[in-house]
Amino acid sequence: MGYTISQIAERTGLTTHTLRYYDKQGLLPFVDRDKAGNRDFKESDFVWLDIITCLKKSGMPVKQIRTYINMCMEGDATLTERLETFEAHKKAVLEKLNELTKYLKKIDFKIDYYKTAIDAGTEAIHAQTNCTWLDVR
Fold first, then answer.
1. Dihedral through CA 18, CA 20, CA 22, CA 28, nearest 10?
2. Distinct helix (H) and strand (E) counts, the chain
3. pTM of the model as a whole
4. The predicted structure's pLDDT at residue 133
5. Interior/surface letters 75-86, b for 16+ CB within 10 angstroms, e for the rest
6. Residue 127 has what pLDDT?
7. Taking every pair of C-alpha atoms in the chain, what is the biggest distance, in angstroms?
8. 1-74: which CATH topology?
9. What's the burial of 18, exposed, middle or buried (CB within 10 Å: 0-12/13-18/19+)?
10. What pLDDT was estimated at residue 119?
């Protein structure tokens, strides 16, 4: 006796809709079915769902996640390809992180800009310092 899709949804924070979508997209080939044809999740499936969630939330497309899952199902013959998948994904995540860091600097700049203007009672204070948005890189 395993877990139902509702129990999995509650425990993982994923919706039943998302879990069904993942199944239809071929991301859950490891999930067994009971005699009635319902998904019958095992404790070990939580590890799979955790990595799928990690990859999805960090920007990996579903198609690429499916390719990764299929490689895992093939076993040791795909170890090198799986490593390459993670190395490429790490590079993409780091690039996105760098991009977000730049945006965060601009957001922080605007927060400071408005705090200074509020403290001075006017935005005109910034005209005196020649402070512009483009100064933040």
1. 130
2. 6, 2
3. 0.81
4. 56
5. eeebeeeeeebe
6. 82
7. 76
8. Multidrug-efflux Transporter Regulator; Chain: A; Domain 2 (1.10.1660)
9. middle
10. 95
What residue spans define the domains of the chain? Answer: 1-74, 79-137
How far is CA 105 from each of CA 33, 92, 115, 118, 126, rounded to the nearest angstrom?
A: 49, 20, 15, 20, 18
CB 66 within 8 A of CB 26: yes
Paired with 116 in beta bridges are: none
Amino acid identity, position 132? T
For 106, the token pair is 């601009």
Tracing tokens 């310092």 back to the chain, one arrives at: 129
Query: How confident is the model at residue 57, as a pLDDT?
Result: 97
Tokens of 92: 């993409």
Structure tokens given for 126: 């910034």
* Residue 131, pLDDT score: 56
pLDDT means per 10 residues, the chain with 137 residues, are 91 96 95 91 95 97 98 98 98 98 96 95 81 57
Q: How many angstroms separate the CA atoms of 84 and 107, rounded?
A: 34
* Predicted local distance difference test score (pLDDT) of residue 56: 97
